[in-house]
Structure to design on (268 residues):
């Protein structure tokens, strides 16, 4: 058997071959292959990649024996001295996460530990990681709610939706049902709407905290009227319960909510 190639057998008796190498004292698995020839090609390609500085990410070809993900991992180890299990290449003050050769996400170095242990998945233009058995959107890691609408509730300052560096993420609205608006005279207000067979205005408020609490108050009013929609309440941080109660009791709510017809259990 060639160096770096190991014969293995699956539970059903199928024979396959594993390729691996050791570099700078680190044992690295290169993957499993159907025959010894493919495994040997992967081993030779891995050795060449680690020792030939002229090879780069652009050198990768679809005909390569190594997967693109493994190619990125080996290059990062060669150039930056750290082996990461995910397709990450470190730069200055940031790192790149390669989903494909042409689809790359950018992150702050302070996020390196997290993304080195959490594989990013993509569905359309949405990115997810699996954390404790749950799929979490990347944006939720940065305080952006799952229901947030790009361009309205948050934006990428440089216009690049693959750049997740914190300096590039600008959050406009962090609360459910709240939208920051500007009046004709230039005044900034927070408009609150709630959906009950159409959008109902709750009110307009001076701060996002007041708007978030007003949304919660509207939920309570509607529930008391028998509305059973699965509303999501806003969680307002860094405010004492007494202060929350004070704001809650003083906030005006639009007549459309206050006068919403009560629903009897028989009509549900």
């Amino acid at each position: 058997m060639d160096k770096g190639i190991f014969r293995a057998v699956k539970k059903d008796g199928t024979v396959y071959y594993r390729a691996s190498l050791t570099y700078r004292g680190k044992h690295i698995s290169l993957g499993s292959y159907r025959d010894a020839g493919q495994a040997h090609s992967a081993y030779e390609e891995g050795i060449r990649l680690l020792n030939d500085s002229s090879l780069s990410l652009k050198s990768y070809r679809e005909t390569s024996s190594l997967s693109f993900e493994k190619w990125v991992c080996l290059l990062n180890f060669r150039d930056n001295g750290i082996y990461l299990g995910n397709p990450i290449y470190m730069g200055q003050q940031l790192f790149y996460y390669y989903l494909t050769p042409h689809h790359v996400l950018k992150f702050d170095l302070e996020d390196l530990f997290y993304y080195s242990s959490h594989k990013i998945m993509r569905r359309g233009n949405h990115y997810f990681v699996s954390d404790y058995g749950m799929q979490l959107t990347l944006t939720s890691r940065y305080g952006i709610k799952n229901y947030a609408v790009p361009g309205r509730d948050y934006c990428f300052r440089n216009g690049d939706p693959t750049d997740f560096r914190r300096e590039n993420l600008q959050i406009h609205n962090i609360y459910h049902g709240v939208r920051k608006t500007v009046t004709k005279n230039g005044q900034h207000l927070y408009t609150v709407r709630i959906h009950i067979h159409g959008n109902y205005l709750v009110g307009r408020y001076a701060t996002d905290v007041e708007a978030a609490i007003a949304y919660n108050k509207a939920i309570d009013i509607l529930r008391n009227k028998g509305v059973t929609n699965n509303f999501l309440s806003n969680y307002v941080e860094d405010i004492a319960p007494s202060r929350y109660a004070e704001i809650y009791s003083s906030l005006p709510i639009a007549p459309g909510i206050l006068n919403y017809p009560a629903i009897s259990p028989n009509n549900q």
